[in-house]
Amino acid sequence: MPAYAGPIYIMSNLTFGIIKPDAVKKGVHGTIIQRVLDNGFKIRGMKLIHQTRRQAEGFYEVHKERPFFGELTEFMSSGPCVVMVLEKENAVKAWRDLMGATNPAEADEGTLRKEFASSIGENAVHGSDSEENAAIEIAYFFSKLELV
Predict the structure, then answer these.
(1) N or C terminus of the chain: which is more exposed, having fewer CB within 10 Å?
(2) Which residues of 92-124 are buried (b: 16+ CB within 10 A; e: fewer)?
(3) Catalytic: which of 29, 50, 63, 126?
C-alpha cells in the first residue's frame, strides 16, 4: 500500500497570497486575514516570515530585469510578512478581486488595497496572477506537509 500523501487539491481552487511588510508594520494583518475568511476563503497554509534580500530576489526573479526590482526586493525583505495558501472556487480570480488594483488610487472601494495600501510600491498584499504561478509561489514557501 502506498504511503499516505495527504489530500489532493485541485489547483484551480488554490492561490497564494502575501500580506506585505507595510501592512504587518501597520498592524492590519489580522484585519486582512479576517477579511480573507469573511470572503469565503479557507486558509490551507499560513506563516509569518521575514525574508532575506536573497529570498525576496529569488521569489521575484521573474521581475529581475524590471526597473523596480531592487526597490521591490528591498521592501519585501524590510520586515515580516504573512504568506498564505488560500482555497476557494476560482481562487486566483477571487483573491485578485478582493485585493484590488495594484495602484490603490485605482482600486475599487471595498478592496484590500483601497483600504490598506499607501502606494503602488507598498500596496499591502500580493497575489498570484495565474494558476501556474500560484503553484510555483506556493511551492516557494510551503512544503506539502504544511498544507492542511
Answers:
(1) N
(2) bebbbebbbbeebeebeeebbbbbbbeeeebbb
(3) 126
